[in-house]
Amino acid sequence: MSNGSGPRTYHVLALSGGGYRGLYTATILAELEQALGRPIASHFDLICGTSAGGLLALGLASEIPAPELKSLFEDQGKQIFGVRSWWRRRVGMYFKAKHSNHGLKSVLEQRFGTATIGDLKHRVLIPAVNFTTGRGQFFKTPHHQTFELDHRLSIVDVALATSAAPVYFPSVRNPRGVFVDGGLVGNAPGLFGLHEIRTFLDKDPQAIVRVLAIGTMTIGATISGKTSLDRGILGWGGSLFDLVISAQESSVDYMLTQSIGERYFKIDDQVTPQQSSDVKSLDEVTTASTNTLRDRGASAAQRALGDPRFAPFRTHVPTSPIFYHGPNKNSEGV
Predict the structure, then answer these.
(1) Beta 124-130 vs 46-49: how paired, if at all?
(2) Do residues 44 and 12 make contact, with C-beta atoms less than 8 angstroms apart?
(3) Which of 116, 120, 142, 257 has fewest C-beta within 10 Å?
(4) How far apart (Å, rounded) are the C-alpha atoms in residues 151 and 149?
């Protein structure tokens, strides 16, 4: 939130999910951070992230330099998306998750240790789906009086919850229930960020909210003209999840454009036909996918830096957040 005599201003950073395609997002963040000369988190009042975007959001809010988050995908992608066995590559994914989450958990523990959501110094909102209740759940820092429980959760547990993509990773259990990927409820979390500001941080209709969204070159799932229309579970496979997240992305993009117009800026790319096979799968970790995601991310960042819509995000300095619970509590609340 900016100070001054004019309307209060809030900036939201929204990071989409997309599995290994998060390398594209991480590359953009690293390039932006280098150009801006200070941590990305210091430019935003709220950081939202889903699935792979959730891992990045938690990393930024932990003040881990963006280039280190980029290396998480580049250097440890195969550890995160390591298929359990040759059997799992053939038929196992039809009966159990394609990947174990042991590699992902190990990588997260190396980066975050035992830190909790309450240890974060920047506001976050991380979508997941509570499979115990059948509802969307949004893990948040305690930036409102009513947010009394999430600050106790470990960052690792929240990261595992938001990234437990059906078919790809097992569901996870933590002290709040059993969770699956936040992409089922909001793969592009910018609309949730806008709602969070207007509902919990500032109800003044004159307050200005800007949203910077970064995508993952999402291709989505489309049907071939020769594909059967009568498909069961095996026929859908992982394409059902891909379809859900791509449909959500387009819907959120439309609604944010209608709601806040030029105050919404999305950085993303359409995949070319030549590169589509490189990045079609959420868990494709190859030299080709790495090169494509990294190169396109660097190009997208350069393009964004020269776009007039990005200019306000360069100079915004948010006020220090108020936390009502946890180790960073700085208000007695109401």
Answers:
(1) parallel
(2) yes
(3) 257
(4) 6
Which residues are the active-site residues?
A: 51, 181
Which residues lie across from 9 on neighbouring strands?
208
Q: Is the pTM of this model over 0.85?
A: yes
Q: What is the pLDDT of residues 243-263, one digit of tens each?
A: 777 888 888 999 999 999 999
Backbone angles phi, psi at 276, to 5 degrees: -60, -40
Strand 124-130 and strand 177-180: pairing? antiparallel
Inform me whether the pLDDT recorded for 236 exceeds 60.
Answer: yes
d(CA 13, CA 15): 7
Task: For residue range 83-126, list pLDDT tens digits in order.
Answer: 656 665 555 556 778 888 999 999 999 999 999 999 999 999 99
d(CA 33, CA 26): 10
CA dist 308 and 215 (Å) reads 19
Where do the DSSP E strands lie in the chain?
9-15, 46-49, 124-130, 135-140, 172-174, 177-180, 208-214, 264-267
46 phi-psi bin (left φ>0, alpha ψ -120 to 50, beta other):
beta
Question: Minimal CA–CA distance to 217: which of 43, 23, 82, 14?
Answer: 23
DSSP one-letter code for 4 = S
Q: What is the pLDDT of residue 331?
A: 87
More confident residue, 83 or 57: 57
Please give the Cα distance from 251 to 307 (Å, whole number).
Answer: 23
pLDDT of residue 218: 74
Which pLDDT belongs to residue 9? 96
The DSSP symbol for 99 reads B
Least confident of 13-17, 166-170, 222-226: 222-226
Looking from the CA of 323 toward its CB, the CA atoms found within 13 Å total: 22
DSSP summary character for residue 321? P
Nearest alpha-carbon partner for 174 in 215, 211, 137, 228 = 137
- Considering only CA atoms, which of 41, 31, 53, 46 is closest in space to residue 249? 53
> HSE (CB half, 13 Å, CA atoms) of 263?
17
